[in-house]
Design a protein that fits this description.
By secondary structure, the protein is an alpha+beta fold. The chain is built from four helices and five strands; from the N terminus they run αββαβββαα. The chain binds heme C (HEC) (4 copies). The site of one heme C has 22 residues, from helix 2 and helix 3.
Length: 209
């Protein structure tokens, strides 16, 4: 008969295998499944995973009335401090998908401020002590809202060589934004990254170092 610790070890191994088998490319298994945040007091009707971010009708449009991926979440009204690079390029105030991300990750806009959530709204924000709370000072974060390639610099790879990273075109200009490096639905590489950080592969897609 197996001793107790062997049983425990075997059980742990099964658990680990079950955990590993979870498909992290599915949002349901990620930290963006906010139906798991009932412990923080976030209530999402019918456990609708997409609802904090998307809705099928009466979604928000941007300031110009343009569609934005059927967005359902309140948009941040904060002003951000942006990174200025050594070459003197300063990131523009967040727009497009970056503004969507910062509508929770600013730590100032409530996670549960979506749709007509007034019945359930309890003003739950990403906690101040979470690394995921980027705050409004983005000078300690990789620049966003910057042009790619930077107009005045060499040392950047041609975008046709990218296999994971992606550029976001706003007003006809290719830029680096949050979704250049992250896909909010797919956590299979960890941290919702579009490319592995092993060997700094993500960084080397853009930076020719
Ligand atoms: C945490 C917020 C969040 C959640 C939850 C979320 N999305 Fe998204 N989704 C986004 C953002 C941000 C974009 C815009 C991304 C971009 O422009 O690259 C987006 C874009 C999309 C798009 C259009 C672009 C694409 O990637 O295909 C579709 C379709 C989509 N989401 C479907 C879903 C569905 C279905 C669910 C639920 C199963 C879901 N999303 C849950 C944030 C979210
Ligand atoms: C509706 C709110 C909401 C929106 C919008 C949102 N997130 Fe999140 N995100 C969260 C929450 C909540 C967590 C978990 C925070 C924690 O555990 O401290 C999280 C976690 C993360 C993490 C950390 C994952 C980990 O494994 O630790 C990353 C990276 C991330 N989000 C990126 C993004 C990006 C990029 C966007 C925009 C494309 C985005 N998020 C949009 C709510 C949001
Ligand atoms: C140039 C690539 C890049 C851009 C642009 C980028 N991130 Fe990240 N982000 C990363 C990497 C890489 C990590 C993982 C850090 C690590 O593992 O050391 C990360 C981690 C995170 C985390 C987890 C907390 C942490 O500090 O580790 C959050 C939340 C996050 N990013 C959100 C965002 C948001 C929101 C934006 C836009 C304002 C953004 N990211 C822009 C590459 C990027
Ligand atoms: C999608 C392309 C892209 C990816 C991926 C990327 N970068 Fe960048 N990075 C840029 C651009 C564009 C700038 C702004 C350069 C400028 O305008 O001066 C920049 C700026 C920087 C700077 C600041 C330089 C300065 O002058 O202050 C550093 C450091 C940096 N990146 C490191 C990294 C690291 C580390 C990674 C991986 C985690 C990474 N980058 C991923 C495109 C990228």
């Amino acid at each position: 008969m197996l001793s107790n610790w062997r049983l425990t070890a075997a059980f742990t191994a099964v658990l680990a295998a079950t955990t590993m088998a979870q498909d992290m490319s599915k949002i349901v298994n990620t930290s963006h499944n906010m139906t798991n945040l009932d412990v923080w007091g976030v209530v999402i009707p019918e456990d609708r995973i997409c609802l904090p971010c998307h809705v099928s009708h009466n979604a928000r449009t941007d300031d110009n009335g343009q569609a934005m991926v059927l967005w359902n979440h309140a948009i941040t009204d904060q002003t951000f401090e942006m990174y200025t690079t050594a070459a003197g390029n300063q990131g523009r105030q967040p727009e497009g998908s970056s503004k969507m991300c910062l509508s929770c990750h600013d730590g100032a806009t409530a996670i549960d401020d979506f749709g007509g959530n007034t019945d359930f709204f309890s003003n739950v924000k990403i906690p101040a002590d979470s690394l995921s709370n980027l705050g409004t000072d983005l000078r300690d974060d990789h620049p966003i809202g910057v042009e790619y390639p930077p107009p005045d610099l060499t040392g950047y790879n041609d975008k046709s060589t990218f296999t994971g990273a992606k550029l976001i075109t706003i007003n006809g200009v290719d830029r680096v934004e949050c979704t250049s490096c992250h896909d909010p639905h797919d956590d299979s590489l960890g941290m919702f990254l579009r490319q592995t950080m092993a060997g700094s592969a993500l960084c080397l897609e853009c930076h020719n170092k």
